[in-house]
Amino acid sequence: GHKIELFNFQYIKNQNIDNYFLVYNSEYEKLNGVSESLFDETLPQDNDEILAFMDEILDPANGYEQSDLNEYNTVSDVDELREILIEDVMVPGQKTMFDLPIAQYLKTEFEFKRYWNPNGSNVFVWRNFLGIAIPYGNSTNIPFSRSYSAGGSNDIRAWQTYDLGPGGELNFLEYKVGTLKIVSSFEYRFKVLDNIYSALFVDAGNIWDITNSNLVTEEGKFTEFASLKNIALGSGFGLRYDFDFLIFRFDIGFKTYEPYLAEDKKWLTNYNFGNAVYNIGINYPF
């Protein structure tokens, strides 16, 4: 199928930004590390005090960029990511509207599905997805709501939503997003008894960054075809119950290949029920 959107308008207004460091606790931990390194003090988990601390480190008059560059860069990166994620924007348009910056970007997606024996009790399905989002003009990043994530019951099922990527980067950010997404899934569905079906599946894919963001390491960027080495692989099985008007689905995904782990630990390190992801969904994922 083909889908063309000639116009899509969205107003993004972030609420409760004072809770940012509660939601992104890993970002607070980075700042706390800087506070303990520079002042041997624990940084209070109060939003105003955290922002005041960041302002102190980033203020050129205080000279931290010269005296403590690593700590300065850590705070600068946390500040840049926060500004991206809490920014209020209009999508799409040109320049500004009502004094809000306009998110300018190009986004294109391709999806291909192939079914074998679609009318029988046993069905083999192959699905491929490619999505690309490129900022331009006055935008240097993609709004969080329009970025790509990986994982979840309709995606790469061995990871929870937002838990995978980007690329082979090992980070502890609570919500991981990217500007390029590649997914390929294989699923074999078969009847077990009456309205009960089962399935075996393999999901491969990841997200990457294709902008010049300094918030993502080289391992998280897609720079050449060699970056495909960081495709993650999940496999598993599931049960489905056909209610006629909908299908209830339960899938268990196992982390088969984890590109962000050390070279000798990428395969099958967490391939067990303790590290499996249990997905509940309605209808087939593809």
Tell me the total number of β-strands: 11
% residues in beta strands? 25-35%
Gross morphology: elongated
Number of helix segments? 5
Unreliable segments of 5+ consecutive residues: 89-93
Task: Work out the radius of gyration.
Answer: 22 Å
List the helices and strands in order.
EHHHHHEEEEEEEEEE
Largest sheet: 7 strands, antiparallel
Distance between the termini: 13 Å
Describe this entry's structure for a reader.
This protein has 286 residues and is of the alpha+beta class. It has five helices and eleven strands, in the order βαααααββββββββββ. Strands 5-6-7-8-9-10-11 form a seven-stranded antiparallel sheet, with no helix packed on it. Strands 1-2 form a two-stranded antiparallel ribbon. The protein starts with 9 loop residues before the first strand and ends with a strand.
In short:
The chain is an alpha+beta fold and 286 residues long. It is built from five helices and eleven strands, in the order βαααααββββββββββ.
Structural features:
286 residues, alpha+beta, seven-stranded antiparallel sheet, 19% helix
Topology:
Elements lengths: L9 E3 L7 H4 L1 H15 L7 H12 L5 H4 L1 H18 L2 E3 L4 E2 L2 E2 L3 E12 L6 E13 L44 E14 L2 E13 L23 E11 L4 E11 L19 E6 L4
Antiparallel strand pairs: 1-2, 3-4, 5-6, 6-7, 7-8, 8-9, 9-10, 10-11
